[in-house]
Predict the structure of Replication restart protein PriA.
Amino acid sequence: MPLPRVRVVTLNAALGPLDYRVPDGLKVSPGAVVIAPLGPRQLVGVAWEAERLKTEDVGDNRLRPLVGLVDVPPVPEPLRRLAEWTADYYLSPLAAVLRMIIPSSSALAGPKQLVEYRPTGTAPARMTPQRDQALNRIAGRQGTVRELAAHAEVSEAVMRGLVHAGAVEAVEVDADLPFARPDPDFAPPQLSAEQASAATSLKAAIGPAAASKFDPILLDGITGSGKTEVYFEAIAEAIRVGRQALVLLPEIALTEPFLTRFTARFGCEPVAWHSDLRASQRRRAWRAIASGEAKVVVGARSSLFLPYPDLGLIVVDEAHEPSFKQEEGVQYHARDVAVMRGHFEEVPVILASATPAIETRHMVDIGRYRELRLTERHGQAELPAIRALDLTRDPPPRGRWLAPSLVDELGTNLEAGEQSLLFLNRRGFAPLTLCRTCGHRFQCPNCTAWMVEHRLMHRLACHHCGHVMPPPRLCPECGDEDSLVACGPGVERIADEVAALFPEARTAVVTSDTIWSPARAAEFVRAMDAGEIDIVVGTQLVTKGYHFPNLTLVGVVDADLGLQGGDLRAAERSFQQIQQVAGRAGRGDKPGRVLVQTHDPEAPVIAALISGDAPGFYAAETEARRDAAMPPFGRLAAIIVSAEDKAEAEAVARRIGQGAPRVEGMAVFGPAPAPLAMLRGRHRQRLLIHAARKLDVQDVIRDWLGALEWSAKVRVAVDVDPYSF
Ligand code: ADP
Ligand code: ZN
């Protein structure tokens, strides 16, 4: 009789599936989380259906026994199928996907009291610059010494010193506290007729496991039309039938306003999942999700892979957002994986957006997704009028960036006591620092990128690798003093310009540098609601989700910025971004207005925004994609080859290029330097693959790369459906 054996996928991405013997008395079914021996080590893994995974044949006599089971619920079957699909589609090791399902082994340990630390509010007897920085950064935070030190960018020794000095204290936390249960009937809204009909249609799709089916839905409603209120009704229904609901949000900074609204509707907060969680919070949330106790989860894209035992509904809010695309590790698109999870779970998936992606709209056009529309803003609010401001006719004065008529409008708004928003998608003060004498430009030593001046933080920073340097006083090339100039505007520079024009105005800069945690986002919302801010200068971070009734003027500082470069999605992206930022204006009972600064008011994107002809814009873009057989009518994949040594990267990329198979319906371009030719000290080469819709391009790439070898110093990553290129 053959020994009872089990196939295990460990969380180690370097290993393939391994077979083990099941010791007497242990019952191991697929999905079970197990501990498996490997050499002297013990690894966490998941038992898998043996017939679904190939592995090296190992005789019974060579099998080692499993160490045991981990006391957590098994990885459910639909999620195992999703993991396989994700690994296949994105050409990633299954283990790398499992690491997103079980993201921290600390979540697996038994119940535990944990010790965390928080500032006491008293200053230490001896203050140092490091201690001062640490205390400033950790105000209002709690976490382990390591977490706090990392957050404050000081050493753990500094943090422990603060504990000794009494400025930071220990607190016990219970990592197994239960979560409150959202009440579906806590405070239902009074829906408009249009909202009610959409909500009814959504609710009808929700049911117990036996009655529900895969049902992808585009909830397409203009900004401020109440999409959130409407999908809240679907969530309420999922809670009523006893199932779990997941809401994916694009940006962590958005979660705070969302939590407030959720609490108003359901009486308590949902369970949040994002990268800013402390280890103890992560552990508590993971266990509540896996046990089914967490009824509603709101999270970043990574929450998509958590082991919900009974998911009844998935919502992807702001579904057009590019940040749903993961660019490292498993390079997946959370919007697309969400739809696949809905498919395997057999549940509805709601994609909510005022500006859906061309791909999503196309799925509606061909009848694969259904569409629910909301065409009116809630209450008295109207969509704001968008006007172009031709910079060739109404140019800003030298060294300034705001045209006179936009300045006039800002002044009018200030006098009326209404709030304004200036949008420029560029962090920092200036994107480039230049020496006037010798022309030297400050470049990142690790990346093909300029060092961006951040005046608020007194440094230059690379936005790709995080490299920073103090602001230079003289040119490192020619040694000239006072010859350095900041070129071009970032949001901080616009804020300076506003301060010079309106010294009495209260201005806030809103970027990921100033809003880096949900608590900061909450503070920003509070200050806006309290009327403590007159003018916001912000990046794309302010284009999303916020609702400020007294915000009536939006100025787009540079509408041409997003159209530079030859990216496939440049026009679509600009359209979405400006439409979204415009959507922040006039959400209350006062009408809003939007001024868009451009050098080319006739450009199709700008013209469509002004005329409000979104359908026309979508139709033209879709036709252009169809003509060029670009997504969604054709497929793209990128192979990125990187190495610290430039020649090595080039050599491997060349070999991959030479090994390209001749396949009908597929063309390979390159290798050529990737758009970021150097990133974090690695030289990058790229091959771009363009294939017909029907071609199984993953299969081709698997065989193609599988036949080649390269040194461990060279990294080869495949980006299937790359977002930008
Ligand atoms: P969207 O997500 O479509 O931009 P929201 O759901 O944020 O729109 O709604 C815009 C604003 O209008 C929010 O403050 C929301 O609370 C409010 N609102 C929308 N519908 C209703 C309703 N039926 N009753 C009360 N307030 C509503
Ligand atoms: Zn860099």
Q: What stands out?
A: The pocket of zinc ion (ligand 2) is lined by residues 444, 446-447, 449, 462, 464-465, 467 (CB under 6 Å). Residues 113-174 form one domain. The chain has a mean pLDDT of 91.
